[in-house]
Backbone:
């Protein structure tokens, strides 16, 4: 059992005091960020990237910190869903449907406890899946040449956003915009400057991190300025957060099903946690039929989406780590972190940096246990933080983003880049154009072009090399199939919403 | 799903999509045209201009499609909301510009007080919280994280 040996080695790394401490900090900060409405996983991780750089952490330690934050936000999102009826982040949206009614009935504590357990099971299932499947995928992908890689990037762009947003036109436009922005700077192969217009600050290309923080965190602030939400915290006592045996037994099969559905949704490119929780909730509702009381505070209506979104969050790490292709916004940001540290995820990562990969996987197992402990007995503490006023919270977020981005290169230019991307992100959101494909284009464009040019120099300029192997044809076919599935899903979603 | 998440109802008048489509189409054409200046000294099967041009084609075509067949948009802000957003950008742009010449402490103090005011707090709250926020951030970055910030120029700190 190779995997077991690697995993044990990983635990040795994850259990080093510094890494353990970072995982704990990450879990706590992540839960907090997830719980605060308006600060989702994407924003949280984007904000913390500059800080991770500033700590001078090794790539392994930085990744452990940020992935713990990522898992933590998935746990935290449910808290404000249940207590305030406001999803802490998008994947926690479905949890409001039964979580808030439970809180109104004075069963808020039970809902919080049960959803924490569901989150734990979902995330653990996904982490086990990551341990088992990522090496398989790596074994397959290790044979890829430049043409196959190019096909893989096409697959990523064909599918990302398409499944969830329902508008392929807008997702593709966003991807194209990102790819074009990704070409700004000196061409690495020839040194020719592209779209820099004489600004020497742009020679290295657009700084990923400044762009990401702008696209997500600054645009979120702009949205918040116009959208005054009235908070409706329940005055009900939360009650005990330790779920009773009866509801635990009732929810066990739900949690199992939700975890599996969420995991599959997470692994598929272009899906992610929101789809995971949505599918788990909807399918569970359908599965139970009249036996369930969904929408009126059925505990299973809390367990299903929480198992689903946590499982999807873990599943989304598989394509990111093993192929270098993120399946969601947050994993895209994790990819940005790695690229900024000059590490290219992909099959070679498992060979060249086994310490990092397996240390991370082990840290996820440990972090999960930490999160369960943080989220069951200490959940009241996090619920209290929700009362922090927006007027204080958002300026803190903005200033941390500013100082963090500034200190990366000590450059005020990066701050203007961040602001420009903030406005871009805001406009895109208003237009219902997803911003994740923009990020993906910006991040993957360089690699995509590199592989295209390498394939073309191998073939001497013959385009047919792109479709000359069975593997690349298979990847294109898979992309078409996923796009068709996305269209079908959009159609099903419309029907489902009409019938609601 | 995005529309539901942000809580705003999508409006059907998608003028924004048409404008965005037009802007992006122009951008794609301009980027395509500008790519002809990317000339490298040596011959390769694929030069530095090919990839940007390959991206411009679908971008331009889809942008034109969006212009003709717009989809749904979120509601655009008006009046006070728009003013406050402009205010945020002005404050932040000013902060980026003044951070180096003024130094971290004065620039951050002014910026944080104005930001807190923008988010609807009273002057007293804004002054007190802005001041403490500035000091905490300075201590955090300067000492806890060890990042040298341009504190106050001319004082040698």
Residues:
């Amino acid at each position: 059992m190779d995997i077991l040996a690697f995993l044990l080695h990983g635990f040795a790394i994850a259990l080093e005091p510094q890494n353990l401490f970072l995982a704990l900090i990450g879990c706590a900060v992540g839960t907090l960020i997830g719980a605060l409405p308006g600060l989702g996983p994407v924003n949280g991780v984007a904000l913390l990237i500059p800080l991770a750089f500033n700590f001078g952490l090794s790539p392994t330690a930085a990744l452990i910190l940020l992935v713990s934050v990522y898992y933590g936000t998935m746990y935290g999102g449910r808290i404000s869903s249940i207590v305030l009826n406001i999803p802490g982040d998008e994947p926690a949206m479905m949890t409001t449907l039964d979580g808030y009614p439970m809180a109104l009935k004075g069963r808020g504590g039970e809902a919080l406890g049960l959803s924490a357990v569901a989150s734990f099971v979902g995330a653990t299932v996904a982490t086990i899946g990551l341990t088992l499947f990522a090496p398989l995928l790596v074994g397959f992908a290790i044979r890829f040449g430049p043409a196959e890689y190019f096909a893989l990037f096409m697959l990523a762009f064909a599918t990302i956003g398409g499944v969830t947003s329902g508008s392929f036109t807008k997702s593709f436009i966003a991807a194209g915009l990102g790819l074009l922005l990704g070409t700004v700077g000196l061409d690495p192969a020839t040194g020719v400057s592209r779209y820099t217009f004489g600004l020497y600050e742009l020679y290295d290309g657009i700084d990923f991190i400044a762009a990401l923080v702008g696209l997500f965190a600054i645009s979120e602030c702009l949205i918040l300025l116009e959208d005054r939400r009235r908070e409706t915290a329940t005055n009900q006592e939360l009650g005990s957060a330790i779920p009773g045996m009866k509801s635990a037994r009732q929810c066990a099969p739900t949690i199992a099903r939700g975890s599996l559905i969420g995991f599959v949704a997470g692994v598929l490119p272009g899906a992610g946690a929101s789809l995971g929780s949505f599918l788990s909730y909807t399918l569970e509702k359908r599965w139970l039929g009249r036996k369930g009381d969904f929408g009126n505070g059925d505990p299973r209506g809390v367990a299903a989406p929480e198992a689903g979104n946590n499982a999807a969050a873990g599943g989304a790490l598989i394509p990111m780590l093993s192929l270098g292709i993120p399946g969601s916004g947050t994993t895209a940001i994790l990819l940005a972190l790695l690229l900024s540290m000059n590490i290219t995820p992909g099959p070679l990562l498992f060979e060249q940096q086994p310490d990092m990969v397996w240390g991370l996987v082990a840290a996820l197992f440990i972090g999960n246990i930490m999160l369960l402990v943080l989220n069951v007995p200490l959940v009241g503490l996090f619920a209290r933080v929700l009362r922090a006023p927006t007027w204080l919270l958002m300026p803190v977020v903005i200033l941390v983003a500013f100082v963090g981005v500034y200190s990366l290169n000590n450059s005020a230019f990066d701050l203007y880049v961040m602001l420009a991307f903030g406005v871009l992100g805001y406009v895109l959101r208003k237009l219902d154009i997803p911003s994740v494909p923009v990020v993906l284009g910006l991040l993957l464009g360089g690699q995509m072009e590199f592989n295209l040019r390498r394939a073309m120099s191998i073939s001497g300029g013959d385009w047919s090399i792109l479709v000359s192997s069975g593997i690349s044809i298979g990847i294109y076919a898979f992309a078409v199939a996923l796009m068709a599935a996305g269209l079908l899903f959009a159609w099903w979603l419309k029907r489902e919403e009409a019938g609601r | 799903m995005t529309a539901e998440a942000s809580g705003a109802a999508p409006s059907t008048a998608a003028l924004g999509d048409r404008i965005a489509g037009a802007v992006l189409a122009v951008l794609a054409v301009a980027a395509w045209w500008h790519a002809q200046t990317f000339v490298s000294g040596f011959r390769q099967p694929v030069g530095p201009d090919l990839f940007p041009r390959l991206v411009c084609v679908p971008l331009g075509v889809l942008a034109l499609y969006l212009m003709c067949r717009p989809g749904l948009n979120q509601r655009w802000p008006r009046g006070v909301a728009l003013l406050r957003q402009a205010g945020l950008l002005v404050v932040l742009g000013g902060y980026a510009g003044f951070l180096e010449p003024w130094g971290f402490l004065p620039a951050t103090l002014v910026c944080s007080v104005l930001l807190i005011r923008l988010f609807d707090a009273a002057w007293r709250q804004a002054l007190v919280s802005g001041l403490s926020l500035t000091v905490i951030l300075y201590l955090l970055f300067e000492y806890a994280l060890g990042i040298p910030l341009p504190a106050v120029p001319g004082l040698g700190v």
Remarks:
- The two ends of chain A are 49 Å apart (CA to CA).
- Chain A touches chain B through 74 residues (CB under 8 Å).
- The first strand of chain A starts at residue 185 and ends at 186.
